[in-house]
Design brief:
single chain, 265 residues, alpha/beta, Nucleotidyltransferase, domain 5, five-stranded mixed beta sheet, 44% helix
Amino acid sequence: MTEAIYTEVSAKVEASKVTKCRVSASGMLKFLGVSRSGYRAFLKRKVSPSRQRKESIKKQIGKIYDDSKQNYGAPKITKELRKLGYIVSQRTVRKYMKEMGIKAQWVKPWTTTTRDSDFSTELHNILDEQFNPDRPNAVWCTDITYIWTQNGFVYLNCVMDLYSRKIIAWTLADTMEVSTVVATIEKAKATRSTALPLIIHTDRGSQYVSAAWHEATGKMQRSYSHSGYPYDNACIESFHALIKREWINRFNIRDYNHAYRLVFE
């Protein structure tokens, strides 16, 4: 306890040198009921190697956390620390983060937002959760997610290539009309080769069973998730959860244009 008091007094004295505000160490020590001789001994005491290492790790944790826009939790920070050469466990990083009063963004539980199609018996899951194709443009997945603004919802539609997990096309619209998903898939087709067999995986939303969607994906194998089961389209679901948790949901979004700028960034 006494050492903690000495540490606090020392920190205030150092801070006063920056702010140029006069601080009486003797006065603080007398008020707190600890000895000046003990404080002088504390100042002369060398910092242990373990203490130095802890402070070094904490400093790096703070930097990595800030560089991630205060998003990263213990698993990701541990991974970054190891890249820098630190041998540290995830448990230790979590402990230090708690001491520093920082934590990752909270994950909102998943809820069903898409109703089943009237043509559910005709929709087959070709992908069957095989999320690691052996070449680009073998499997694309796509989905729509809601983004709240002060002027009402806008809708983000993305197409991901499962080979690289890269978003190859996206569209932000103020409606969920079929034209939005068609426009997005046309963007993807314009930038990628579809000469080899290509699976396009979606949920069973009405947009993806429409005649316009069938026409736009005529040369592709259409694959559909099981009803109310997000894990069949886990990669794109995870991306949408990530972009909202780590970025979008941290803002009070005014309108479509504001939402678009945030998604673009």
